[in-house]
């Protein structure tokens, strides 16, 4: 698991490098700002590393990983597919993301797994927030939310549990992105056996945890 975490973090930082490079070049080209009267704000943001490395939820990880792409998918894919229902819309969105990233088994496996993880996390936390009237949703509540329990110790502790669970999922999903693999294999994309082998070494733990969370959600629903 330590090696898996190392691989995942290495992959994360390669994404941050590309994200900040694209952000910097965009600003140098004169893009990435908003103008309000005479004030110009250079507020373009591509990634939020702290929301990934110290996540509140997997939902926020996904939206913070590539902010422009996330917004585009939400606007043009997710909202259009919502007429099918929330879960089908999520699957359609992650399928579209897979195609845009370049159709390959390992990316498809990661992104579709993310779809299941984020959906189960969202509905479970929404249900628990309703039962306990607590601020434990996937996204931080607004200051004026109707929950009775906001900053009690057990609320903070429960949010921390979900944060550690998100780190667990990130480690599992990122374990296949091995920085030690040769460049030829990287150019062609990881073979399906590579993905299966990596996740088998971790006993398919993340998928089992998601399944257990889904069963728990169905029991309390």
- Kindly state the number of beta strands: 2
* Strand order in the sheet with the most strands: 1-2
Termini, distance in Å? 33 Å
Helix content: 55-70%
**Biggest beta sheet attributes:** 2 strands, antiparallel
Which overall shape is indicated by the principal axes computed on the Cα atoms? globular
Q: What structural class do helix, strand and pairing data support?
A: mainly alpha
Outline the low-pLDDT stretches.
none
Radius of gyration, CA atoms, in whole angstroms: 19 Å
What do these coordinates show?
With 221 residues, the protein is mainly α. Helix 1 (2-28) crosses helix 7 (153-174) and helix 4 crosses helix 5. It has ten helices and two strands; from the N terminus they run αββααααααααα. The protein has a two-stranded antiparallel sheet with strand order 1-2. It has helices spanning 2-28, 49-53, 58-65, 67-81, 86-101, 105-132, 153-174, 183-188, 192-201, 205-220; strands at 34-36, 39-41. Strand 1 and strand 2 (39-41) form a beta hairpin.
Question: Which keywords apply here?
Answer:
globular; mainly alpha; 221 residues; 2 strands
Summary of the model, kept short:
The protein is mainly alpha-helical and 221 residues long. It has helices spanning 2-28, 49-53, 58-65, 67-81, 86-101, 105-132, 153-174, 183-188, 192-201, 205-220; strands at residues 34-36, 39-41.
